[in-house]
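Just scan my protein:

. . .
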Amino acid sequence: MICCAAAALLVTLPARAETQPTATGPHWAFQPVTRPAVPEGVNPVDHFIREGLKAAGLFPNPEATPLELLRRLHFDLTGLPPTLEELAAFEADTAPDRLEKVVERLLASPRHGERWGRHWLDVVRYTESQGFEYDHPRANAWPYRDYVIRAFNDDVPYDRFMREQIAGDVIEPVTSAGIVATSLLVCGPWDQAGNSQSNATQRATTREEEMEDLVSVVGQTFLGLTVNCARCHDHKFDPIPQTDYYSLRAVFDGVKHGERPTEGAVEARERQTKRQAVEKEISEVMTAASRLETEGAKRAAAATGAPAVPPGPVALARWTFDGTPAPVMPGTPMGGAVVSEGRLQLPKEGAYFQTPPLPRDVREKTLEAWVSLADLKQGGGAAISLESADGTKFDAIVFGEREPGKWTAGSDGFVRTKDLDAPAETTPAGEFVHVAAVYAADNSIALYRNGEPCGRRYTPAGPLQTWKAGDAHIALGRRHKGGGRPWLTGSIRQAALYDRALSTEEIAASFRSGGSGIPLEKILAALNPEERTAREAALKKAAAARESLAALAAPPAVAYAGTRVQPAPARLLKRGSVTAPGEILAPAALTLVARSTPGLDLPPDAPEAQRRLKFSEWLAAPANPLPARVMVNRVWQYHFGQGLVATPSDLGKSGARPSHPELLDWLASEFIRSGWSVKHLHRLIVNSATWRQSSRASEAALAKDADNQLLWRHAPHRLEAEAVRDAMLAASGRLNLQAGGPSFRPFTTSSFNATFYYPFDTDEPEFNRRTVYRMNINSGKSPLLDAFDCPDPSVKSPRRGVTTTPLQALGLMNSAFVQIQAGRLSYRAMVAADGRPDLSVNLAYRLALSRPPTAAELETGIATLKDRNFTSFCWVLLNSTEFVYVN
């Protein structure tokens, strides 16, 4: 954060008087963007830079060597060195446009978004833990990181990129990407302790600190203004009154920290369409299998002289008690249950029948039973129950547990149970009734009685269960082990378990069959080989489709994108104190650019969604002079090491003046004209002669412009912490390019109210992903990354510090990670060179420094290899200044 006091102490950098904004009129950043004229056929970047050099009596450096430019391009655009294959291809290409081809290849690489996404995450203070004293991890913060990386890879227009991060969850059509994008508003730290205080004033104060963080990240990131400095009083430098701060705060007052589902309306419709298609496929293939089984059953019945009863669907397991052969799973009557008169008799409480564990997993399913109740006043017992070994989880067809005389789909804790709008049981005691419960892959549940629906199909709050082979079993006559009033008294003629969701037609057919069953082996034996093959193929296809359906029925993913509430009308706080509320203010944008863009025109009680939607439109309007200038300056800074404005998140009066204001405006106007394409900016910059200059120092130029503000050379710059680590992994051949998904966690944790992190080094592939995929926690950071100025994730870092400390040298020398990579680089080069010393040294140089060694370096390398070991030589390369700096 740039506060008022710090802003007052900023030292602006000198620049040519003729390039500075005039002293009269509005501040230069608040004026409309202009498009200065550029001579035809001249690169605009080079035109403006060379005009400044000419006026200062300076000359541009010559172009860097091709290999220097190749390495520079790779690190600038992807954050990784060129591979051996890329080096060889570049050296073999003699076309005059070979560098331009490299630019296009790198801009199209998925590595590009990882590089530039990391820059953006610095600016917006992206963190994956809560910070403050508890610092609990955020397991689902990473979708925002992936959104940012995809946006840069896809070259999402920057105006859309801005709007999505402000109001993507309310911009129609609402998509998952839009919801995740708004994580920017809450991706900073959150004071859990402050928000849980018992004192209301303290909680309100904590909330104001939270809101200042939100307003400041929006103001500094997109507008380049320290709007948050107007929280307690009018801004001391920029024309931002205190009312503007609280009006802008009102725009975001409904944003709260927390997780939310990320499925948008678009994805919900797509999922429903896919689900219906898969359900149709399952129905079609199972109908085909059912026809074959029916034909086999008819043939088997004719061969045995059995009555011509229409067969029902074939079950995974069926239990009969009248001696009729059936696909029987063994079971044991217990607690006084007996088999007599063709029935399982359940004469008293405690009597039941239990099977061994199931032979395979069951997810979607149908439970079925023909049951005769001893009396209709009993309640809580189950005709059939599928339960875990310990009885803590179950699905069952239960009678009279919650509503007297009614059947329900019982479950543990009623999480999959619903009282149905259906009549009570009227079948007299002693007579049989057919009951069935269908649990579909989409998590819907349907109950049937005598072949007809019993109440409406519903979707429970609890998820569909997977019953694991070897754990779950079937119980008849008992709801579940250990339950209160679990017993059903009466008798059961037959029961069945299907490992699929039967259709309404199949339930009716099963009821009509009266439970008559022909053993599956006899049904299959009656089919010819072609029919058996066709049936097996249909069942396999149905099984694969059910897996797809189960995935589609899974709960929507969640992300740490914040929740939304409708806020009360906002009030100005006098002196910023929560105990001194003042006038009510409507949500509004900044008045300092009111002439360029209209306001939001919203009442104080405007809907929460409308506030952010209107503000996003104001922010991204082409006439708004700030966002284009701010983003152009950021891109320039990451290519040259410093921006055209040296304070990239403060373009206000207390920030630095632009070194080349005409160039800044030309680039901003071109950015808008290109459709807000960031990749277009990259092309303009890296294809310019200015960017391609060598880094060679000149005593005369240093005397006039030691800070290289006029860009007479391309200043060398040290790799950021992440690029140092990634480059080592790339050189050693251990870099895992797996993209996206949950972050890797190179630490262990312990929790005593707060979470404590303990980093470790390992060479496992999961931990060798690019550093942008490392879980970006506030505490427990990597010592090596910290030494190379990796910023605190809770702090907005528009420009990283570049220090030179003993810790950096010690880290490169002694870090376990560096030692491991040196050994891997040594092994890689030696194996690829078939053990030849000269080739090994050559390959090590090309892998580490993207160039072959000089004759002297080759001689030294061979001598080192003979005198010591090649790992030590590779360790020296990774410790070299040339490795951690790009010229």
